[in-house]
Specification:
71% of the residues lie in helices and 0% in strands. It is mainly alpha-helical. The N and C termini lie far apart (89 Å).
């Protein structure tokens, strides 16, 4: 039996011995550093948006506190607004991401079909990052002394 030769498989990113994609270490480090930078920028944006929203709704939060609202319910009320925003953003991003990733995967010799679970997992991770970023601002607003904020009104 003779060995089968696979010419030019390196050009399509496949190792001829294992049929696994060839991933160089420098490619992985470049992608992970760019992903970390994008995640940091999105966290800064979410934090700034939360700070702006809390500053704008300070009076409402204080009135809810005076009327007996618990800090947990007030923080949940503020976090719900961000969860709805992330959900709408995810619904808008799924078709574009499916199209772009599908086109990119077609360039490989062996491509896979990504199911909706991948996009759902990405959306849930995004929601977790946004909630973790925004929670500090919401809890700070919910624990603020309502007298101090309403005195200036």
């Amino acid at each position: 039996m003779t060995a089968v030769k696979f010419p030019n498989l390196r050009d399509v990113g496949v190792d001829r011995h294992t049929f696994h994609p060839v991933v160089r270490a420098q490619d992985y480090s470049a992608l992970s550093s760019k992903g970390a930078i994008a995640l940091a920028i999105s966290c800064f944006g979410a934090f700034g948006l939360a700070a702006s929203m809390v500053a704008r709704r300070t009076r409402e939060v204080c009135i809810r506190k005076v009327l007996g609202g618990s800090a947990a319910r007030i923080a949940a009320l503020l976090l719900r607004d961000f969860a709805v925003t992330v959900g709408i953003g995810a619904l808008l991003a799924w078709p574009a991401a499916r199209f772009a990733v599908g086109r990119w995967l077609q360039t490989f010799a062996y491509c896979i079909d990504l199911g909706p679970g991948v996009y759902l997992l990405g959306s849930l991770l995004t929601l977790a990052v946004v909630v973790a970023t925004v929670a500090s601002q919401c809890v700070r607003a919910a624990h603020a002394n309502p007298v101090d904020a309403l005195r200036s009104e």
